[in-house]
Design goal:
The complex is a heterodimer of chains A (about 260) and B (about 280). Chain A is an alpha/beta fold. In chain A, the strands form two sheets. In chain A, strands 5-6-7-3-8-9 form a six-stranded mixed sheet, with helices on both faces. Chain A has eight helices and nine strands. The relative contact order of chain A is 0.18. In chain B, helix 6 crosses helix 9. Chain B has two domains: about 1-50, no CATH class; about 60-280, MetI-like fold (Orthogonal Bundle), CATH 1.10.3720.10. The chains are: A alpha/beta (about 260), B mainly alpha (about 280). Chain B: Its main location: membrane. Chain B: It comes from Neomesorhizobium albiziae.
Amino acid sequence: MSDGAPLLVMNNVGKTFSNGVTALDGVNLTIREGDFVSLLGPSGCGKSTALRLIAGLSMPTTGRLEWRKAVGDDCVGFVFQEPTLLPWASVFDNVWLPLRLRGVSRKEAAPVVGELLERVHLSGFENAVPRELSGGMKMRVSIARGLVTKPRVLLMDEPFAALDEITRFKLNNDLLELWQDERFTVVFVTHSVFESVFLSNRIVVMAARPGRVHDEIAIDAAYPRDDSFRTSPDYAALCRQASDVLVEAINSTRGAAA
Amino acid sequence: MTAVENPVVALDPEEARRLRNARLERIGRWLLPLIIMALAIFLWDRICVWNGIPQYILPRPGVVLKTLVNDAGLLFGSLLVTLKITFLGLALAVIGGVGLAVLFTQSKWVEMSFFPFAVVLQVTPIVAIFPLINIYVDNQTAKLLLCAWIVAFFPILSNTTLGLNSVDRNLLDLFRLNGATRWQELWHLRLPAAMPYFLGGLKIAGGLSLIGAVVAEFVAGASGQSSGLASRIIEAGYRLNAPRLFAALILISLTGIVIFLVLSLVSHLALRRWHESALKQER
């Protein structure tokens, strides 16, 4: 899975905010085409900042961020931690929004939006407004909106952190299924070891103060992964391995602070 | 057993009490103000009779009502004049308030430069400004309109500005990511997000516009050029025609109430699908 061509290379990237806080320092990271990369780390390790840099919502202070493929406007989809939907707009209108901003009419967008809503199991909810939906359903709308432009990379910032475990498992499964079918690249920010091991083929463990890459773990378990993977000994072993690395990363921070 | 056979769920005493209270509250919300109002009117009438108060000082409610009917032509004609000023003033306040608010959100610098002027205009009593307006503006309608506008536009401006600026930061990022233009951001994001705030401002501005129109008529009416409700009140005051004075007063109050109710309804209809303020509370 991780032998795709490099898509994005971050070369010694650092970000210091105007208030003097260094969120990221010397980050080297290569995202390959077709990757499902998780950025795992304690809060304050700059994983969300890294995601914003990749999205182009923020500029690096030092270093370079290079896209290796000629990628246009539509290369990035973003899913926020909150569903971040327009509360006054219907489900259809919310998913249509990115296309609408590009000048695609409702009629032209209808087949694409309809198909995506089917993929995230929301057919029949086109006319509902967000407040009529559950937390998990809102997140599904948010994912559909992130994918509606057929982006090359889907950036996800702790998208399932606020959901209950049962809903989260379901969404994890559905996200993997979508990813395997559509072959986009995912950069997934999370603070959950279990989630990152279940989803990704690579985990980038980050450490805090300043935010930096501590280590990388390859998760070699084969796809498709489903609920049986969740209960397998392989999964348990991988989780233990990832946990150990994460603890290392956290301790390294403590050492630096002392 | 009965709970199973009976389609109506048996309620425990606590829930039954809660249901009863809710029902009573629903009725009381309408009934209580009406009863108190009727009581007050009755008391008013009795006080007039018991103390033998002459009609030119405090007319009995019945006399006021009779005057309202007898002078209907005169009073409603005047009401129409006042209403015209009120609604034109409100319409201009909406255009001016929303327009300025949009301008303010396009640039922080514009907002910083001009917002203080709006505040100055708001805090200076309109009665104090009017003599100046009287000197500079010749047209009678334009004078009154300007007054109503000055009083009504500020709540719309300040509320709409607040609304346009309180957009979810992540949604703004989403629009940036998708290459939205300023116009798209305004139309698809900021304006709908500002709607609840704007409607709140509109509710206040509706009443203020009426007050502005009446106050302006008062000041202008002193020179005998106005024909609105305020000038009827002044005229009636000069002639010690208290019944007509009361009748005009009641008409103004009723107008204010109706304006408020209509704007509340508009607000409710516009927001009922999505905004917290318009939703029924669920337990």
